[in-house]
Amino acid sequence: KEIEIGERVIAKLKSKDFGEITIGVSTTLCRYYLLPYLKEFMKLYPHIKIKVVSTPTHTTLSQIEEEKIDLGIVGASHPLEKHDFIYLKTIQDIFVAEQQYLDSLHLRKPTDIFKKGSFMFLEKGNISRQHVDEYLKQKEIVIEPEVVTSTMEYLIEFAKIGLGVTCVIKDTVEKELQNGELVEIKFDDQINVRQVGIASKKNRGISTAEQAFIKYMQDKFQANTKDNMN
Prior knowledge:
The chain has helices spanning 2-14, 27-33, 35-44, 57-65, 99-105, 113-116, 127-138, 152-160, 174-179, 208-229; strands at residues 19-25, 48-54, 71-76, 83-91, 93-97, 119-122, 147-149, 165-169, 183-185, 194-201. The chain is an alpha/beta fold. α7 links the parallel β6 and β7. The longest helix has 22 residues, at 208-229. The chain is elongated. The protein starts with a helix and ends with a helix.
């Protein structure tokens, strides 16, 4: 009987229908790049237990190294040296503000925003904040933000009520850009794009359940890319 039970467990693992995955992900990446796909995955694989740990990306990467979590949904602007990384999609960070607020500044050119605008950024330890800071440093622009917060969702809401200018992932404000609640401030040279993907500990064996999740996410993002191109 014990041999039969063992064989059944192995069969389940081989069928990708059994297992447990702990996924680390930031609040923003969870909302836009994990939650929309999680329900269907759990329907397809009801015996795979998913545990989601909400942490900033730098914490997610550390916990992967320490093997406290299995996988991470992360945004990367540079190659990850200590992690394997499976690409899902490219993301663009943009500066946005409310139109009336921009009108009140009487800008002659878009870059005047850095002299006249009030800025709202994420906390310094945040990966997205580091990315925008690198861009500003390359431009030799120094900004002391009036508002600093821990989540991109707050920045979006603050910008919508005209409190100032912020920098967010474009995907997070598609609705606001379409309905005119926010306006993208376009410059001649944009912030470098980043990649969202699935990180795991370098050279660590990937379980069958994790393989199923990775394959599912790759298929979903590839399908979305094709739909957007059509």
